[in-house]
Design brief:
The complex is a heterodimer of chains A (about 300) and B (about 350). Chain A has helices at about 5-35, 40-60, 65-85, 95-115, 140-165, 165-175, 180-185, 190-215, 220-225, 225-235, 240-265, 270-285; strands spanning about 130-135, 140. With about 300 residues, chain A is an all-alpha fold. Chain A has one domain. Chain A has a two-stranded antiparallel ribbon with strand order 1-2. In chain A, strand 1 (about 130-135) and strand 2 form a beta hairpin. In chain A, helix 2 (about 40-60) packs parallel to helix 4, helix 5 crosses helix 6 and helix 10 runs parallel beside helix 12. Chain B has a single domain (about 45-345), classed as Orthogonal Bundle (ABC transporter involved in vitamin B12 uptake, BtuC), CATH 1.10.3470. The chains are: A mainly alpha (about 300), B mainly alpha (about 350). The interface of A and B includes residues 268 and 275 of A.
Chain lengths: ~300, ~350
Amino acid sequence: MTFQYFLQLVISGLVIGSIYSAVALGFVIIYKATRVVNFAQGELLMVGAYVCYAFLVQMHVPFWAALLLTVLFGMVLAMLVERLILRPMIGEPAISIIMVTIGLSLVLRSVASAIWGTDILVYEPKLFPQEMISFAGVPVSLEFVWCFVLSVFLLAVFSIFFKYSKAGVAMRATAFNQQVAQSMGISVKHIFALSWVISAVVSGIGGVLIGNINGINNTLYHFGLKVFPATILGGLDSILGAAIGGMIIGILENLSDGFCKTYFDLSGVKEVAPYVILVLILMVKPYGLFGTKEIERV
Amino acid sequence: MQYCGDFRTAYERDMELLQTPFVKVCVTAFFVFLLAWPFLVKSAFLWITLQILIAAIGAVGLNILTGFTGQISLGQGAFLGVGAYTSAYITAKLGLSFWVGVPAAGLVTAMAGMVFGIPSLRLKGLYLAIATLASQFILEWIFLRWESVTGGSYGIVIPRPSLGGYVFESDRSYYYIVLLIAAAMVLFAANLMRTRTGRAFMAVRDHHISAEIMGINLFKYRILSFAISSFYAGVAGALYGHSLRFVSSEQFNIEVSIVYLAMIIIGGLGSILGSIFGAVFMILLPKLLTIVTAKMAVSIPGIAELATALEQGIFGMIIIVFLIFEPDGLAHRWKMVKAYWKLYPFSY
């Protein structure tokens, strides 16, 4: 394995990983605020990619407007989902809530494939310039650079939002203790809705970015399953953890795939490596790099 | 003197599985009915019943783990696969009998379950759910890649069982094997829950720290629960493989795990009867959807294509609606109905 190949794997892993980070961010926001493990995160991503396709290619809207409309659509969808499906489930056991999000994922998936079919669709025209630039001797598509920059921008915006804005502080308060937050005048209902909205928007944009690189079809939701390794590595309730975890998982899956291809002649390691990493992390450090340790008292 | 209502004065009476003569008669009659069933219905219905029985074994197993011990598992589909592949390897590649293959499938799957259950010592709830999800993907990958054993993407063709020269080739004869195994395993599960082990499981579920303080070895019982649950999954998987005469990796993907989880949630967590209701419901539902779609396609042309695409969505919708409006499952509803008729016409 040459150093150049290694570097190439790291760079492409970092780019894909940055999208994992964005989607993992969406996942963590929902988990932190509402304690819901959202198995439909990948479907939110897929729907975002499809909706943007509908505006951009089918209705010939310029890219910036299409992206804006996608964000709007994501907001409305998230609000409906939160109000109609998740709110009646408050107080139910964790397994029922997991199951309801799985049910939601089936619905979203089937609606998407009923509308857009199962063929691979591509954004036409491409969203970003296709030229190659050289980075430390490794050719990198400008598309990748744009993708990385946008994801990191997204992560930065939301980190600042959580740290400094009033709504962000209210969300953190709710995550810390719902009853106390409510008695301080924070509407927990609104916070729940807001966290779903942010999550859907972030995942939707992630979907557009990944759809631009890989093309969109009805298996795009698999991408959402990668948030589990990413969030577990970073800690299930840590936003910083989601950002770093996503990128590490992206790089590790690429590297392990490259290593196994070169040295063991074993292909397809990419699909399974993140989950092996996940199990290892859970055995060694169950609360991840930055997660809150749960202390139990009787 | 005859009292109305049933009064029990000994713990043995209180813990009996079939508590009144009426229930005994009903259960016996139902079993006789199941024995006669293959002679009453068409082969398509027999096939569905066969699948329901197999699913019931897997669902009971998952309910032991999730409903009784409180360990969420998203890997039941893969464990079914381990069982199916073990039995397929033993019968088709080693040439041994079905009667060796199925118990071996159970044991090998129990081992696999124990290995993937090890994280359960440190992990609870959501973390464990995600760990078992990982085991699902890892096992699925192994099914596809370990070609010398699993046949890779080609799968394995396996025979139906035989005994002393008689081959159980028809669905009808195979149905009886499955029925007996299913009945035995459901009975075992119902009995298990009346023993020290079963009570320990429930104590771990209700409050694991209190359970530990009472002297229950958490690690032992959690691993045991994983082992028993996986044993059930393994047997169900093996029976499923032999029923189809073919095993391949797509039969055991994440969707199967989801369907099994839906079975026990819709049926009722922590209820053996609920697992069976769930199995019936989840196997019948797709068939019913197909029939309804076909009927509607006759009157409204063009809806057929859309409906097949939306079938999965309707399935998901029903899961959601069920969870919102019937969170305690069908077993709970069944209890309510029974109580209603018992007290009829006085509702209190």
